[in-house]
């Protein structure tokens, strides 16, 4: 997956470089050329039929990156086998296509084309798998510090830090072409030459992209001749190779750095100092470093290679990049949490200030309420005193009125009893009138019921008379119809009797003819049996005449003839 992602990054630059109009689409003819070149550098068998089938449309219109991805995945990336091709050749092809459009060397640029391509590869290595590819400012600063660490002069400057701290760069990230311009500007401002930058870039490139954990000259003790020879050692995850010189062309051996390998410090002997050994299952390699610091660095690097091999990793900087990304995400989460906490604190502070203001308002309102309550209390007291005086006066007046009222009540009670008697009399009269009225109403209702019943019965009687007349007419018609049908049936019965007699006569004739036919058939059968007997007799005679008579043959023939005649009789 890591190799596929790395290849896809480089191919993405090649695809975008063919988009001359920045429309996000590339002509099909250019994509065919790009696909052919990718098949060549990736050592994949080229299938022109599949390529033509994928681009089988007649029009030569442009194709977007999404339209090219299915072919790229199915016919190129899915067929890539790690170790069968050189990754640098793919990077060189994609860099050549993309640099023609986006990066041109001029007098103001210190980086050579080779160094720019290596920085481009380093940029792709550190960039996340999000398109368009950009590099966060922290990763750009990390790469620049990494390059500066192997140079005599620091590459960073104030202008570079100001550029990386811009809001647009912090938000959207840094593109590779802006990054190369920044490096060129920093080199020009520092007065660096192309050679020193090239050495630093190559070393960082070999370390990060080439997965070289450490390299340098060390003394190694031979296994056969047991002499000490200076070799150029190159340590990668899983292997420690040693060469004659630092050009790494003539490899003299490879030490497998895996779970069966370990590194130990040795004491000085044989005139060598700062010694250590690398032990495998079959051999022990004794090595001498220039000084104790170099020995410790080599031991630490080999232990790192052993840890990567145990973890199944092939790149230290991949692990470091993941850790830095996790740290950035953690910092971003913490920054978000701090911003959220700050916002919440501000909200709480605002709410507290609002609550304090409301409390002050409540206190002021309470003081005003107390003052108004005191005034209201005084007013109520004065009103209460006045009300008490008024009530006393009214009580006296009420007592006088009560005495007068009692006298009036006694008079009114008498009048009320008289009126109640009158009311009861009127109610009795009203009840009797109501009963007489109800009786009259019931009598009228019964009269109307009787009349309605009488009318209904008369109507039913009239209907029944009509239906009786109708039934009588129907019965007369049916009687007439029955008489006619009876006469027709009598006539039909006479005809059927005549036909039956005639049929009986015909049947007698048929039976007589049948008896005659049976007699004829019996006579014919007798004649047939006689004819068959004659045929058999004449067949015997014919056979006898056709065969010569031997001794005893005549007697046998006579016996056969006699038997035949007797059977015929």
Automatic annotation (TrEMBL):
Region ranges (Disordered): 370-395
InterPro entries xrefs: EF-hand-dom_pair (IPR011992), EF-hand_SWAP70_N (IPR057836), PH-like_dom_sf (IPR011993), PH_domain (IPR001849), PH_SWAP70 (IPR057837)
PH domain span: 211-307
CDD domains assigned to the protein according to its UniProt record, in alphabetical order: PH_SWAP-70 (cd13273)
Highest rank taxon of the organism: Eukaryota
Extent of Basic and acidic residues compositional bias: 376-388
GO cellular component, one term: cytoplasm
A family per Pfam: PH
PROSITE patterns associated with the record: PH_DOMAIN (PS50003)
PANTHER family: DIFFERENTIALLY EXPRESSED IN FDCP 6 HOMOLOG (PTHR14383:SF2), SWAP-70 RECOMBINASE (PTHR14383)
Protein name per Swiss-Prot or TrEMBL: DEF6 guanine nucleotide exchange factor b
